Amino acid sequence: LKVSGQVAGHPFIIATVLGALASYFAWAPPAGVTTILDMLMKSAGPCALFALGATVGMRKFSGVGSELAVLTIMKLVTQPSLAFVALSLVPGLEPLWLHVAIMMAALPTASNAFILARQFSSFVEGASSAVIVTTALSAITIPLLIYVIRLGWI
After folding, report:
1. Percent helix / strand / coil, the chain, rounded to 5
2. CB 53 within 8 A of CB 126
């Protein structure tokens, strides 16, 4: 129950719900608020990358066990495979949408995994390692996936 409350009260979740409501009701904030929100939006990515970079700079892969291999395989192989299987079952789905979904599923672990791990003080080294390793390996897996799609195998 405590974890559910923490998840529901997380800024990512609250921002997503508020954004969806604002979009649904076509609400536009006043000009001053828009300027502030725009500045915050533009700074969020660099701040996250800075925090991740600081952790990466002190990176010692010795503290991460076999979980990293499991996470890497799940993110770069299992997730795109599941996307393929699930969306192949959708009747009348255009191949373009199937390919886009598979490519999105095959992207490396996002830096928000590290941000959440840092916020909850849980698996911080593993999350930052997963971001680094999956990003490096996706330089191989993404071109291979594009090649497979272009050959028409998917």
Report:
1. 80, 0, 20
2. no
Per-residue pLDDT tens over the stretch 46-92: 887 787 677 666 666 666 778 889 999 999 999 999 999 999 999 99
Could you report the per-residue pLDDT of 5-29, keeping only the tens digit for each?
888 888 888 989 999 999 999 998 8
**Distance between CA atoms of 91 and 94, rounded to whole angstroms?**
9
Q: Which two tokens stand for residue 83?
A: 């996307």
Amino acid at 122: S
Rg (CA), the chain: 19
Question: Is the CB of residue 133 less than 8 Å from the CB of residue 72?
Answer: yes
In the chain the first and final C-alpha atoms are separated, in Å, by: 42
Compute the distance between CA of residue 30 and CA of residue 106 in angstroms, rounded to an integer.
Answer: 39
